Amino acid sequence: MKRCIPYAILVACALSSAWFQSCSLPETPATPPAFWMTNGPVYSLAAADGIVYLGGAFNLVGPSTGGGCAVDSTGGSIASGYRYSEHGVNGTINAAVPDGSGGWYIGGYFSLVGGVPRRNIARVRSDGSPHDWNPDADNVVQTLAVCGNTVYAGGAFTSIGGQSRNYIAALDAVTGNATSWNPNANGAVCALSVTGNTLYAGGGFTSVGGQTRNRLAALDAATGSVTAWDPDAKGGAVNALAVNGSMVYVGGIFTSVGGQTRNRLAALDAATGKVAAWNPNANSTVVALAVSGSTVYAGGDFSSIGGMTRNNIAAMDAVTGNVLAWNPDANNAVLVLAVNGSAVYVGGGFTSIGGAVRNNVAVLDAATGNAFAWNPNASDRVYALSVGGDTVYVGGSFDSIGGVTRNNIAALDAVTGNANSWNPGANGSVRSMAVNGGNLYVGGAFTSIGGQTRNYIAALDKVTGTVTSWNPNANGSVVTLAVNDHAVYSGGYFTSIGGQTRNYIAAIDSITGYATSWNPNANNHLLALVIGADYIYAGGRFTSIGGRLNCFIAALDVMTGKAAENWDPNYGGNTVYSLAVDGNILYAGGDFTAIGGQTRNRIAALDTITGYANSWDPGANGSVRSLTVNDSTVYTGGDFNIIGGQPRTLFAALDGVTGYATTWNPHANNTVLTLAVNGSTVYAGGDFTSIGGRTRSHIAALDAVTGAAY
């Protein structure tokens, strides 16, 4: 199959606000609300006093919206009445155009809208709910245009509206059925623009309607017949079209149009297809175009246009092609443009544009190029913008928009699910958390948190987020913490902490921040710590700890740090990632295949005094990364797909007596790395983007009985 572009950048149809990723894409309340999500993995969780603290490698926390959402055109918040928590799209939206009734036609690469099957194309109402309109495209829809009672669609599909249609189709705006209009392109259609009786099409095709048409064609909007208009673009796809009066502006990868050298930008006579003298000459791909008055705006992944430095976005004179002084200077690709009066709406993959931090979507002053305050904060790339009245429909590969900046650490209200104002901000990932009294102790890969220098470990006021004076100053990452009233037990990759040499494990005085005399001196990394009644239990990659040869797991005396004699359960010789204590039972998870004198595949229950494995034997077929115990249930996450004798994808609940998997089955789509339980809610963090039957990126709150994600 032909592609519009040879690498993973997005293409656009600026006039119809349609853009795409690629031309061939295959105390917890009784009923908690949908929890906000992060745009990166969550490694640690702690729940206390109605707050869920989370640490990881993210910089945004926001509501679960799916790949499309309507936002207020003034403030940038989610539009009033838009029911995002119910009506999310479960994939990427590449194109969005108004339906004339307050809603939108959307195209992209998705299979569900508001939980209702809708394959790659749909119509949504003003509140985001799916309309009955359902053309059901068999592959990605990349661009849309509306004229009267017809919706034109282009993409990589070969079936749409109940008919065979190769890459381009006309759909009845009421029924969704394909009309008889059938130009039959031989390759992907990436951009559409309709004006009067003519539909202009651009893409990667070389034939339309049985006629040779290299990447550009004009079609009769009523009959589908190919007109004589034939600019003949060569050297690469046409990604964007914008019609302005008698001129058609085109952008893409091409290097020649109408026999003339035109690098990625050209202007064509709308009637004849003749190439105009207009020649801005971009040095790399143009993805999006928009025209307003005498100005042509271009977006892409270029760094130079017209011999001028312009990073990913530029403005040109519509007549001369001269590059204007307007220069927002985006730090990554600009993939969609839409102009509304004095505002230029911009979407893409950037984090800085117009002199401001803006995540993937922004509004720029059409006169100065400076970013306005409008800042919806999309969690990933934006490919589609449809501006109208007081609402902007935003589509892309994001699953959250309307959130807030939170660097690697955040706090969510357990009642509302929203981020609160608590915002210490760390300059590196947060890997571990533990609450004790009024403090939240955190460890990770950071060297600054809460505006203070803190190397890899810190204590924060759990109400204000203020960094306390406690400062053990480790020389390497802290990845696990366990706290009691006397000490903060720390494990990780360090060899110095609390002013003393401590190899991978230490006890830090909770008041002074100095290392105590407790010094088990491990010979390799610590990954898990848990405090029991008689011992501190440690897991990791070590083979020596506490003065004994203990492989990967050990019980350490609380007072001396010495390893308990004859307590060395791990005969399977592999990493222990997670530990949890429940009474006289120590649950362990990792990569081992034998432990406590028994064959146990990656998960086991050990006697806390003897270290022997009891009869509890769920047997996972992949790594167990996280464990927590609540009443008689053991919740676990990892890389398995069978555990407790049942298929369970990466997440499971096990009977604490029998070891069998319960019916609880949230089915995560990627690894669950951390768990916490509070009341009737199980909190999960990790690398997943779907869990419990819903789109939930990296963090989720799940019903402890049903497994459904809130």
Task: Give a structural overview.
This protein is mostly beta strands and 710 residues long. It has 2 domains: 11-20 and 36-63 and 73-405, YVTN repeat-like/Quinoprotein amine dehydrogenase (Methylamine Dehydrogenase, Chain H); 469-681, 7 Propeller (Methylamine Dehydrogenase, Chain H). It is 0% helix and 43% strand. The protein contains no helices and 70 strands. Strands 3-6-41 form a 3-stranded antiparallel beta sheet, with no helix packed on it. Strands 4-5-42 form a 3-stranded antiparallel beta sheet, with no helix packed on it. Residues 1-32 have low confidence and may be disordered.
Please tag this protein with its features.
Methylamine Dehydrogenase, Chain H; three-stranded antiparallel β-sheet; single chain; mainly beta
CATH A-level architecture of the largest domain: 7 Propeller
Q: So what's the overall shape?
A: elongated
Could you name the ranges where pLDDT drops below 50 across 5 or more consecutive residues?
1-32
Spatially, the strands of the biggest sheet line up as 3-6-41
Oligomer designation: single chain
Output the number of helix runs: 0
Tell me the total number of β-strands.
70
CATH class of the largest domain, anyone?
Mainly Beta
Q: Per DSSP, what share of the residues sits in E-state strands of 2 or more residues?
A: 35-45%
Domain count, please report it.
2
What is the averaged pLDDT score?
A: 93
Q: By helix and strand content, what is the structural category?
A: mainly beta
Q: What characterizes the major β-sheet?
A: 3 strands, antiparallel
The span between the termini is 40 Å
Radius of gyration: 29 Å
CATH homologous superfamily heading of the largest domain: YVTN repeat-like/Quinoprotein amine dehydrogenase
